[in-house]
Design brief:
- By secondary structure, this protein is an alpha/beta fold.
- The chain folds into two domains: about 10-130 and about 255-310, D-Maltodextrin-Binding Protein, domain 2 (3-Layer(aba) Sandwich); about 130-250 and about 315-340, Periplasmic binding protein-like II (D-Maltodextrin-Binding Protein, domain 2), CATH 3.40.190.
- The protein has 13 helices and eleven strands.
- The strands form two sheets. Strands 5, 6, 7, 8, 9, 10 and 11 form a seven-stranded mixed beta sheet that branches. Strands 1-3-2-4 form a four-stranded mixed beta sheet.
- The longest helix has 14 residues, at about 185-200.
- The protein is globular and about 60 Å long.
């Protein structure tokens, strides 16, 4: 999903592993995940229990990840739904041996056989989220129930949007009553004009900084992922999270193994460990993203699993869409996005 948030970081636990560290490469697992998307101590626990060493790197967006994997080898990737679809079609990821991932049995049926992996061959769902509006209830006096609030001149200079082409474009299309996956030139042109009109009102396009800027009071409203909203609300009581009435983008991030992986066995061991119910629960609770593991969800505190912002009712999801990457959709959106971001 997302996510899909932050500057590229790298935590190297085996020095110079990309150029050869002198040890057995089969004892190293190279993981490429979105920023702030794993609980503290989980990697160290995996290393202690399995004997593998993890080289853990973080990416800012699915698009950054896609570019990076063309030149760098990883064993585990954690892309979003639409990017997995693209990776499958381009033959960049390989089928998994689910015999090595027995904890797959705990995956909620809701997340199995998705459009991007209909036969459950390539991926194991990690977490899920929605896109919505984080706002300060002490500062925003209007009802926050649809995307039009993000164009309200009353809050000019206090609005942040996501620096994510598909999410920001998608939520704008949703505001206009269109599909988040439209390839219709007229609909895309309308979304472009809508975002150009908004430019003078916003402070900028940012990623995981949105929550920090709303917490600090620099902004009053921000388009965010539900996990980021959950973290922010834990820090400031006046903050609230709203999903637009006409629906939102519903995201699933999953673990996959690229064709270029040097340690598939280690990759599958890591994926299996992440779906151990207690580990899945720790990851979900600390990151505030939605859990895909049924037994893990049972271990979450009631105030977490009953939070409708993080776990919305089915009727909300029925009005929502997952991002897809059919045809030339990504290129079309990027061309428009470049025009929008260059206009400021």
């Amino acid at each position: 999903m997302k996510k899909i948030i932050a500057l590229v970081l790298a935590v190297t636990l085996c020095s110079a592993v990309f150029s050869g560290c002198g040890g057995d490469p089969k004892k190293v697992v190279k993981v490429y995940n979105a920023a702030e998307y794993i609980a503290e101590g989980v990697i160290e626990e995996f290393e202690k229990e399995t004997g593998y060493k993890v080289v853990y790197s973080e990416f800012a967006s699915n698009e950054d990840m896609y570019t990076k994997i063309k030149t760098t080898s990883y064993d585990v990737l954690v892309p979003s739904d639409y990017m997995i679809d693209k990776l499958v079609k381009e033959d960049l990821i390989q089928p998994l041996n689910y015999d090595n991932i027995p904890n797959y049995q705990y995956i909620d049926e809701t997340f199995k056989s998705p459009y991007y992996d209909e036969n459950d061959q390539y991926s194991v769902p990690y977490m899920w989220s929605t896109v919505g509006i984080l706002y300060d209830g002490d500062k925003v006096t209007d009802e926050v129930d649809d995307m039009s609030i993000m164009w309200n001149e009353k809050y000019s200079g206090k609005i942040f949007m996501l620096d994510s082409v598909r999410d920001t474009m998608g939520m704008t299309l949703k505001k206009l009553g269109f599909s988040v996956n439209t390839e219709n030139d007229s609909e895309l042109a309308q979304a472009k004009e809508e975002l150009l009109k908004q430019r003078p009102l916003i402070l900028g396009y940012v990623t995981d900084e949105v929550k920090d800027k709303i917490i600090s009071g620099e902004g009053y409203l921000g388009l965010v992922y539900s996990g980021e909203a959950g973290k922010a609300m834990e820090e400031k009581d006046s903050l609230k999270y709203a999903i637009p009435n006409n629906g939102t983008i519903y995201c699933v991030d999953a673990m996959v193994v690229p064709k270029s992986a040097e340690n598939k066995d280690g990759a599958e061991a890591f994926i299996n460990f992440m779906q151990r119910p207690d580990i899945a629960a720790r990851n979900a609770q600390e990151t505030c993203y939605g859990i895909t593991n049924t037994q893990g969800r049972d271990q979450l505190p009631d105030e977490v699993k009953n939070n409708k912002g993080l776990y919305p009712d089915n009727d909300v999801l029925e009005r929502s869409e997952m991002l897809q990457s059919e045809g030339n959709i990504n290129q079309k959106y990027l061309e428009i996005w470049n025009e929008i971001t260059a206009s400021h």
